[in-house]
Amino acid sequence: MTSYQKGMARLLASASLAAIATPVVAQEQATSPALEDIVVTAQKREERLQDTPLAVTALSEATIEARDITDASDLSAVAPNLIATITPSSTANVALFIRGIGTAEPILTIDAPVSLYVDGVVLGRSTGAVFDLVELERIEVLRGPQGTLYGRNTTGGAVNLIAKKPADEFGAKGTISYGNLDYKQARVTLDTGQWGDTGLRSKLSYLHKERDGYFNDLNQPDGNDPGAYNLDAFTIAISYDHGGPFRANYTFDFNDRHSWAVPFQVVAMRPDIFAYLNVSPQLGGNAPVVARERLDALRLDMGPIHDKVQGHGLSMELDLGDNLMLKSLTGRRMWDNRQTNGDLDGNSGLVGFVVSPAILAPPNPFIPLGVRTVNLFSASNTRHQDQWSQEFNLVGNFDSLDFVFGAFYFDEDSSENNPQFLTIVQPLANPIPLGPGISTPGFGINIATGPKYQHESTSKALFGQATWHATDKLSITGGLRYTWDKKHLDQETTFRRDLTRKFNEPTWSASVDYEWNDDIMTYARVATGYLAGGFNARSANAGFDPEKITSYEAGVKSELFDRRLRLNLAAFYAKYKDIQVQQFVAGSGGATSITVNAGKATYQGIEAEAMAVPIDGLTFNATIGYVDRDYQEFLVLDPATNTIVDEADNAKFGYSPATTINLGGQYELPPFDFGTFTARLDYTYRGKVYYHPLTRFAPFNDVISDDSVGLLDGRLTLSDIAIGGSKAALSVWGKNLTNANYQNAGIDFGSLGFAGVAWAEKRTYGMDLKFEF
Asked: Which residues does the UniProt record annotate as the domain TonB-dependent receptor plug (predicted)?
């Protein structure tokens, strides 16, 4: 055991002893405010958060509303070691990382190691995952591999979004918002209540939201600036519960989103490429812009993005007896995306001396084409994804045994047509004159490339998990799952091929937990995970294999001082094998991003979550996460020697920081005759972030890395304003109040010779008017 692991063990042991000792003092306290219980379904059955022997963060409806969380992109501030970031390709794509594990790769042939679920239905893609659910009842973040109950593609963890079910009584609520950047929102929800004595209830929700961009594109009006969006969403939910053994819930959600991608700015460029582009103004074009500091305006060459997301979900439950229930979960989801002219070179209107692409193939003829428009990199995209899933659960308990058995089926069809346009720049030994006083130090080669393919994926699994309550304090849990995956790629360009691969893998988990008293529980858990292999649709290689993880975790869950303080701790150590990473590799057509099985890595870290209500009306929350990652093996092909080399000592982990901190405080004043004042502040910190594993293939990786950043959000609310027979609330809010500069992403285009960053939002603010009757 390393000194680091010994330190974590001592920390957990000390915390456990301190927690066990504390209630003796707490029992002497007078009646005081207490934390509410949160019920979760992380183990496919309802149980208290504090009784669940794994690392889970759960947010209640009140907390979700107070923090204004509406979709997956808002999740970074909710749990330790959780990062959610918008990718450069689309404002509808989110990259989720848990404990340093995740991917920002948007191509549809690659799965993500953190899965997102909506009412129990898995989303097959993180692309298109930023859609609004008009009313959320609960969010659950499961950290660490969930290979038994959730299956493949949860090596990092899983996130459950649970929508609010139709209410028993008639009611309506709405929100009208306005903010800077001409932000407007209208949100309304109608509950019909029960339809007579039928047991049927329904909920109808509608949302419209729009905003100008947060970065000035000098080639576009404000409404088309980077980061702008205009979306409409609605949800229809119908539930049936007549008090008998059968219950059902059906939900349909639809999102129609028009947007403009986040701003991309070039921050580094090879000197010979800059010298070539710097001749552009003399040839009648624009000057190249390269700057490391954040600029407020650029001339970009961006087109609109249109996303349509829709989904059907049907859950049915049938009680087979007092202690046995059969549950069915059926899901159908579709996503369509169209993007024109996605600009990832941060410039427009560049011109230069261009030669024919024939120079790239023997006998390499030099055929001048004259002065032409050049694009360092731009792309359009048309994508479609259609998935269907079915899961059955048999949930029950007999005497001292709780169990869940299940079967799962997933079928997905997707397609992508991603034409890309790029310019390869080559220096000249002797500049070529182009006119009086004008000469070019290099030449460009305009390339049209990009993948076009259809992809099919099916997954089947059988699983089971059982918990034996050996005593009234000691419980032992074990689970096993077996997964069969099949993937098929029909690729039209850039390489014509038809490939099929099959994978199958067992995953298992085992845990033991001990309840020292009503307020303290400790647990230890071992779990495995499996991320399916797949294909690289951008290159000619055969694809990549599954990655596998074995994780060891120990934790303490406690509620102290008469339940005024909830303190949960976890320490983990994970071993990765055949880890999947993204690399840029050079080729005759420029640089291509592919997924490879790099080798082996270990992850170890600690997590702490606390929530406290020291006095009536005052609530504090805090989470701290730290993960230490280390490659034991990182094998790559050295193009200079055509040999395999181990870069483990130099490799970095992309997109996720070592440290995350979330702090929050909320104070609700005693009610006044005219309403109730509430003030809330939230602070989120994340450490330094890199975006590529190696400078060997991404020479500007250090340049585009993003330093640590802290974000401060605030909200002031006057609620319980009586207006006739209804209630209203007025809030003023601000996000990123200190106007911090930080990045959503960074891309080093490798052999293309430039790199850039996608800037995140600066300060936003506004007000909400809510009503309910």
From this structure: 49-158
Instruction: Please give the backbone phi and psi of residue 702, each rounded to the nearest 5 degrees, phi first.
Output: -70, -35
Is residue 538 assigned to a domain?
Answer: yes
Determine the pLDDT at residue 587.
Answer: 53
Sheet of 56-59, strand order: 56-59, 136-143, 157-163, 114-118, 121-123
* pLDDT, tens only, 541-589: 778 999 999 999 999 999 999 999 999 999 999 999 999 988 776 554 5
Residues 190/172, Cβ–Cβ less than 8 Å = yes
The three-state DSSP-derived secondary structure of 634-656 is EEEEECCCCEEEECCCCCCCECC
Q: Give the chain's domain count.
A: 1
Other CB atoms closer than 10 Å to residue 224's CB: what's the count?
A: 17
**pLDDT tens string 743-773:** 999 999 988 999 999 999 999 999 999 999 8
Q: Are 272 and 334 in contact (CB under 8 A)?
A: no
Residue-wise pLDDT tens digits, 185-195: 999 999 999 99
Confidence band of 87 (pLDDT split at 50, 70, 90): confident
**Bridge partners, residue 231, by sequence:** 209, 257
Burial class (CB within 10 angstroms; exposed 0-12, middle 13-18, buried 19+) of 638: exposed
Whole-angstrom Cα distance, residue 623 to residue 501? 41
- Decide: pTM greater than 0.85: yes
The H-or-E segment that residue 727 falls in is strand 726-735
Q: At 75, is the secondary structure helix, strand, or coil?
A: helix
> What pLDDT score was predicted for residue 575?
96
CA 327 from centroid of its chain's CA atoms = 28
Q: Which two tokens stand for residue 104?
A: 């920002």
Gap between the Cα atoms of 724 and 703, Å rounded: 59
- Give the Å distances, CA to CA, from 147 to 109, 157, 459, 460: 21, 9, 14, 13
Rounded distance between C-alpha atoms, residue 428 and residue 304, angstroms: 37
| Contact indicator for 136, 165 with CB cutoff of 8 Å | no
E-assigned strand segments in 119-170? 121-123, 136-143, 157-163
In a domain, 667, yes or no: yes
Question: What is the number of other CB atoms lying within 10 angstroms of the CB of residue 114?
Answer: 28
Cα(623)–Cα(632) distance, rounded to whole angstroms? Answer: 29
Tell me the β-bridge partners of 643.
638
21 falls in which pLDDT band (50, 70, 90)?
A: very low
219 phi/psi in degrees, rounded to 5: -95, 0
> Are the beta carbons of 164 and 173 closer than 8 angstroms?
no
- Provide the β-strand partners of residue 594: 583
| CATH classification of the domain holding 189 | 2.40.170.20
Say how far apart CA 406 and CA 387 lie, in whole Å: 20
Quickly count: other Cβ atoms within 10 Å of residue 748's Cβ: 25
Residue 297 domain-assigned (yes or no): yes
SS3 of the chain: helix, strand, coil, percent, to 5? 10, 60, 30
Element (H, E) at 734: strand 726-735
pLDDT of amino acid 18? 39
Beta bridge partners of 637: 644
Residue 20 DSSP SS3: helix
- The DSSP H or E segment spanning 40 is strand 39-40
Minimal CA–CA distance to 41: which of 325, 254, 409?
325
Distance CA 682, CA 69 (A): 13
Q: Output the pLDDT for position 676.
A: 96
Yes or no: say if 142 and 150 are a contact pair by the CB < 8 Å rule.
yes
Identity at 163, one-letter amino acid code: A
**What was the pLDDT predicted at 35?**
87
In a domain, 375, yes or no: no
| Pairing of the two strands 297-298 and 216-217 | parallel
Element (H, E) at 9: helix 3-21
Q: Which residues contact 612 (CB under 8 A, 6 or more apart)?
A: 564, 565, 566, 619, 620, 621
- Which of the four pLDDT bands, split at 50, 70 and 90, describes residue 67? confident
